[in-house]
Amino acid sequence: MASLTQNQSVLSWIDEKAELVKPDKIVWIDGSEEQIEALRAEACSTGELIKLNEELLPDCYYHRTAVNDVARVEDRTLICTKKEEDAGPTNHWMDPEKAYKMLYDIARDSYKGRTMYVIPYSMGPVGSPLAKIGIELTDSIYVVLNMCIMTRVGKKVLDVLGDSNDWVRGLHCKCAIDAENRWICQFPEDNTIISVNSGYGGNVLLGKKCFALRIASYQGKNEGWQAEHMLILGIENPQGEVKYICAAFPSACGKTNLAMLIPPEGYRKKGYKVWCVGDDISWIRKGEDGRLYAINPENGFFGVAPGTNDHSNPNALASTKKGTIFTNVARNLDDNTVWWEGLDKNPPVNAEEWTGKKVNGPEWKAEGKNLAHPNSRFTAPAVNCPCISSEFENPQGVPISAFVFGGRRAKLAPLVYQSRDWNHGVFVGSIMASETTAAAAGAVGVVRRDPMAMLPFCGYNMGDYWKHWIDIGKTLDPDKAPKIFNVNWFRKDDEGNFLWPGFGDNLRVLEWILKRCDGEVDAKETAIGYVPYAKDINIEGLEGEVSLDSLESILDVDKSLWETEADGIAEFYGKFGDKLPEELSEELETLKANLK
Ligand code: OXD
Ligand code: MN
Predict the structure, then answer these.
(1) Which atom from ligand 1 is nearest to the alpha carbon of 201?
(2) Distance 2 CA to ligand 2 centre (A)
(3) pTM passes above 0.85
(4) Which of 245, 307, 514, 576, CA to CA, is 20 to 30 A from 333?
(5) Is position 253 annotated as part of the catalytic site?
(6) Which of 70, 73, 209, 281 to mutate to test the pocket of ligand 1 (most atoms within 8 A of CB)?
(7) CATH number of the domain that 179 lies in?
(8) Cβ(465)–Cβ(488) below 8 Å
């Protein structure tokens, strides 16, 4: 098939890689509906995909990964920089020369009998000044079809690239899906990603975590912008003004739910609306007016299915009703639809659980077993989302009023607090941590530090990354810089009950945040920053659920708990040696002094 570009850097790289992996043929993905349809048909003919009920789920497909290949593999995700120090203490590192040799040995001849698909894709609206281009080579139709949802794909991307060499190289080889030889390697100094022996989403949809976070965070450091693990949402007030917030949370904290939040009834009646710009990743850059602007580099949602339902996230559920690929959920064999834990209370009787075994759903559940894999996913086009923002395609992005960090802390962090200034805000992001839930393997309630929710996604030394945040602040006029906050939806009482209803009611907290940004409300200065007066959080309509007293209790700052926390922070910071920015050690000293 004729190539879709004359770009020499692209053509010679593809030649080189084809020489290595030896495909039977090379197919360029042009982004046309005919080509996509033909690939779906081919994947259905081999069993790689199963077509779902066309009436109930039009253009939707089902895919099952290998049972040993169901999640990102952090211990096999490497940052390959010449100097180990540049990867830093929170990444796994390998010398690039050694890594290339290891990967090429694994990849060699692995496309024999297979097709090499060449996917030109844009992260961000095609041609946007904030967008970047990548090319992924893959031997998986599943990957092609997912990339066609998650990114903007095809000839138009190559037209924008022209003969530029500024694009990210990505090579994916399924090989034998051998867990022992599975590697997801980033070479930030070479704009290159190589992924072998996996067929699961985050490991193989190279535009997402590998490029849009790991490689892009490194590019952002060198080019003066930021790639963050943040959702972007717009809040429209009854006057029709929309303000935008970027928010970072570790996994299992409800990020997709917050991004697509439905306002509580009282707010809806008044005319409040929430618009989703993105649910996972933000690329952020200073605009001409001196404010920070963000785009969502993705074009779809790769969401966790279990727990998604009409109450938790009706917008996400609606997004999956057409043109969606489901991975590792359960199938209802009676009507050829899908099911997952938490979708509803009616597991299908005539079911196929996620590994493909035919089971009786209710009996299977009664034995305590899952029908869908806990990390099963939907890949849904962003345009399907009922609350997708009208600015989703805006090439300039949206202006950011606030950055919000958050985690799951049963006792420590108040419902919300505001940092004193930018550097203190960077400190607040750097000390982010979350208590592990039963959803993940390992002990429950253990504090995992996850600065800015970037722990597995920062493509360079986290100390340098913090410094980059501090440096960005220096370029901003304090009046125009986003204000920085921390939220915690997960405070519990002594009996272990959640004290805040969460979901749509989180808008009440976002409202306070925006009022703070506009200087419309006072706050109490505490050892950790500014905390709301309980009366300033609107709890109208929450009678019986949240009282002024319970609100006060989740706004309190327990100094003795924070003293223990400060020790934990000091220990964590210790890992970074002289890469820890001075500004952050000063902030830690201030915190300790404030707690005295
Ligand atoms: C994701 C993740 O899948 O953060 O978005 O793990
Ligand atoms: Mn994520």
Answers:
(1) 3
(2) 36
(3) yes
(4) 307
(5) yes
(6) 209
(7) 3.40.449.10
(8) no
